[in-house]
Amino acid sequence: MTAPAYRVWALPGIPEVRPGDDLVKLIAGAGPELADGDVVVVTSKIVSKAEGRIVRAADREAAIDAEAVRVVARRGPTRIVQTRLGLVMAAAGVDASNTEPGTVLLLPEDPDASARALRAGLREVLGVDVGVIITDTFGRPWRSGLTDVGIGAAGVRVLDDLRGSTDSHGNPLGVTVVATADELAAAGDLVKGKAGGLPVAVVRGLAHVVTPEDGAGARALVREAAQDMFRLGTSEAIREAVTQRRTVREFTAAPVDGAAVRRAVAAAVTAPAPHHTTPWRFVLLESAEVRVRLLDAMREAWIRDLRELSGFSEASIAKRVKRGDVLYRAPYLVVPCLETSGAHTYPDAGRNAAEREMFVVAMGAGVQNFLVALAAEGLGSAWVSSTMFCRDVVREVLDLPAGWDPMGTVAVGHAAAPPRARAGRGVEGFVEVR
Question: Which of 23, 97, 202, 394, CA to CA, is 20 to 30 A from 270?
């Protein structure tokens, strides 16, 4: 049995590409002749040049803004962005290398369409059926160094899905999907290089990856947002979690993972607090029977207060009490409690009040940490103040220590629907500069 092998070489003799140049003729005339089943690996820069994707260097930042749809990470002047093509890369691929001084190159408008046009042109001129990959250079998370990847493709099986097959020991492969286009791109880059003036390579001997149809193109390599575990850099993820945390009032019936809630509690108790204290306590109501018993007791106390202390009508009482239904609908409840044994005591009421306020602020910081961490776990939440209006009832039903002060109830669950879009808030009206 012959061991698998392939050859890869760079095509010599391709001149400096100018806007409007015919890449098909340049590649076809470079030799040696192409054959059926070859894969032609083309650096995106010459595609961009031929397509006139050139702008003045002074316009580079504006070009990045135009090409980007969101910032993934920012470190000093460097921006990692997602482009309109779905690619996540530095500076949206706007590049000042291998172009005339004073200019920068944008990526091709549609790399898959460019690859299809090159493939069709080579078939027409040379009568060969080849695959085409258009490449660009990427950095990678967790790995130092750069490598070429496929950003456009035609006639190439860009992904080799091995899920459902077995390895040499008979073990099932459950997650293995090989990025064939990226492997071919990297192989081509080994002979093209970054500064050798060799923008095209040919891979021969892997005809099984070449397909009769053009195929889905390199777009199939872009991971869908729902499957992307690392859509943001660290600081961007923190900011996104804080600003996108939303109150959720409708939940699915899916159970809540108690371990996820405990991880959120671990984040909550990193909040700042006075005098090196730890004033947070979180009562996790994982029992449906306990949740209902508590909510029923709280509802009775609420109705009594509305009827006897506020003099509300029965219709008005029913309307107000209905607001608490969100707690009944939630599959998991958490009661955050404030514990102030570490507070200082003063001989006057003013300083004692300020001391308690310090602890209450710390409690709010802890609860905010908790809610944001729940969102990071994929859980929705609603912080409801109801337990603060019937603290004695809550302490009795839950058998809490006398020093634990219930500070609301957090409904936790999987959101029944995505939250509605909300405009961001500027700082105007919230800051005063002195």
Answer: 394
